[in-house]
Amino acid sequence: MSAGTKPGKLPHATPLEGAESRTPTGEVLIELSPMRRRMLLFMLAGFSMIGPFSIDTFFPAFPAMQAALDANSWQMQQTISVYLIAYAVMSLVHGGASDALGRRPVILVSLVVFLFASIGCALSTTFEGLLFFRFIQGLCAGAGSIVGRAIVRDCFQGADAQRAMSLIHMLFGIAPAVAPIVGGYLLVFGWQSSFWFLVLFALTLIVLAATMLPETCPPQHRHKWSVKDLARGYGEIVASARFRWLALCAGFNFSAVFLYISSAPVFVLKHLGFNEQQFAAFFVPTIAGMVLGAFAAGRMAGRWSASRGIRVAYLVMAIGGLINVAQALSVDQPVWPWAVLPITLIGLGTATAFPLLSLMMLDMFPARRGGNSSVQMFISLSINAAVAGGLAPTVNGSFLGLAVTSLALTAMGWTCWLVARNLARRDSAAAQ
Question: Is the pTM of this model over 0.90?
Answer without folding.
Answer: no
